[in-house]
């Protein structure tokens, strides 16, 4: 277990956290690195990462009892367990490049938390179960994990997926533009990481607000989201009255009255107009086959 201030400082600098965030987390370390109750929570999580939700419940109680900010404590808790996770990567023979790309997600969640809540930390600590049980990995621009096909049937080029078929699911961290080049690079990395060989097709799936077919009606031409959608056969989607992913577009202003939504980017302007027109947003589920070089 590593909750020492110098270790937290070194890791947050490695992940390129803003200096103010580093100072905040190091101050947390000053207060808690010798706290037996906190250290016991970290040690327990390191041994049983699949029980993250239970530890987070106890962590919230600890935060309330000790006057700590819950979101900051969440981040400090996760960082404190990264040393043990790194050792597990080494035992599995997984490179440091992949380890640091994977836990880099902590930075993106940190920035989201500061944008939305004006606190250095994370408000979605439960998201990290997949990372600490070593089922979710950062491979280039995207994050991948072994999964199961969620729909009844899909067929393309004579290849059939049925409900429960093994597939590779993936997620899109908020780490910058989602370009075609970065996506293909990530698919290639995942194909190799998950044992793809000799051009044998590998199935990739994604469920996301980004894969909502009506985006083609209102997002600007040339938008990376539309290009990303073209990677897939979108086989399922749903309309949603409330834009639950609005914070991803509008940040902390997502709950503002419709006439006060920020319009600083073409994406914000497109969604603001859509919402003012009273039209739905939504999400979709897509699939494609990849042969190691290209989408089939």
Order of strands, main sheet, comes to 1-2-5-6-8-7
SSE run: HHHHHHHHHEEEEEHEHHEHHE
**How many DSSP H or I helices?**
14
- Average pLDDT number: 96
Coarse morphology = globular
| Residue runs with pLDDT of under 50 for 5 or more positions | none
In helices, the fraction of residues equals: 40-55%
> How much beta, percentage-wise?
15-25%
Report the radius of gyration as a whole number of Å: 20 Å
**Terminal Cα span:** 45 Å
**Number of DSSP-assigned strands:** 8
Q: What is the number of domains?
A: 2
Brief synopsis:
The chain has about 300 residues and is α+β, with helices and mostly antiparallel strands. Helices cover about 45% and strands about 15% of the residues.
Helix-strand layout with pairing:
Layout: H1 5-14, H2 19-32, H3 36-47, H4 52-66, H5 70-80, H6 82-92, H7 96-103, H8 105-117, H9 129-132, E1 136-139, E2 142-148, E3 153-156, E4 159-162, E5 166-171, H10 180-193, E6 202-208, H11 215-218, H12 224-229, E7 233-240, H13 246-250, H14 266-276, E8 281-290
Parallel strand pairs: 5-6
Antiparallel strand pairs: 1-2, 2-5, 3-4, 6-8, 7-8
Helix pairs in contact: 1-2, 2-5, 3-4, 4-5
Give an overview in words:
- By secondary structure, the protein is of the alpha+beta class.
- It has two domains: about 5-135, no CATH class; about 135-240 and about 280-290, Aminopeptidase.
- The chain contains 14 helices and eight strands.
- It has helices spanning about 5-15, 20-30, 35-45, 50-65, 70-80, 80-90, 95-105, 105-115, 130, 180-195, 215-220, 225-230, 245-250, 265-275; strands at about 135-140, 140-150, 155, 160, 165-170, 200-210, 235-240, 280-290.
- The strands form two sheets. The chain has a six-stranded mixed beta sheet with strand order 1-2-5-6-8-7.
- α1 packs antiparallel against α2 and α4 (about 50-65) packs across α5 (about 70-80).
- The longest helix is centred in the first third of the chain and has 15 residues, at about 50-65.
- The radius of gyration is 20 Å and the shape is globular.
- The N and C termini lie far apart (about 45 Å).
- The model has no long low-confidence stretch (mean pLDDT about 95).
């Amino acid at each position: 277990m590593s909750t020492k201030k110098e270790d937290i400082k070194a890791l947050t600098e490695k992940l390129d956290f803003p200096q103010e965030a580093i100072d905040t987390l190091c101050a947390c370390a000053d207060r808690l690195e010798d706290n037996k109750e906190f250290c016991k929570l970290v040690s327990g999580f390191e041994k049983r990462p699949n029980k993250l939700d239970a530890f987070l419940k106890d962590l919230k109680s600890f935060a309330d009892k000790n006057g700590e900010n819950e979101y900051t404590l969440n981040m400090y808790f996760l960082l404190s367990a990264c040393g043990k996770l790194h050792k597990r990567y080494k035992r599995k023979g997984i490179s440091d490049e992949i380890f640091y790309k994977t836990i880099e997600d902590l930075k993106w969640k940190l920035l989201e938390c500061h944008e939305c809540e004006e606190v250095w930390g994370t408000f979605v600590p439960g998201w990290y179960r997949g990372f600490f049980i070593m089922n979710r990995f950062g491979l280039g621009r995207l994050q991948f994990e072994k999964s199961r096909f969620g729909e009844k049937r899909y067929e393309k080029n004579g290849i059939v997926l049925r409900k429960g078929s093994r597939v590779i699911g993936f997620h899109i961290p908020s780490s910058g533009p989602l370009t075609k080049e970065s996506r293909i690079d990530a698919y290639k990395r995942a194909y190799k990481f998950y044992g793809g060989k000799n051009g044998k097709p590998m199935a990739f799936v994604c469920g996301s607000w980004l894969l909502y077919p009506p985006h083609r009606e209102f997002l600007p031409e040339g938008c990376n989201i539309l290009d990303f959608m073209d990677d897939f056969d979108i086989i399922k989607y749903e309309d949603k009255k409330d834009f639950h992913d609005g914070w991803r577009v509008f940040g902390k202003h997502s709950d503002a009255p419709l006439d006060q939504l920020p319009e600083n980017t073409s994406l914000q302007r497109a969604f603001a107009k859509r919402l003012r027109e009273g039209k739905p947003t939504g999400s979709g589920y897509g699939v494609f086959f990849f042969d190691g070089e290209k989408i089939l």
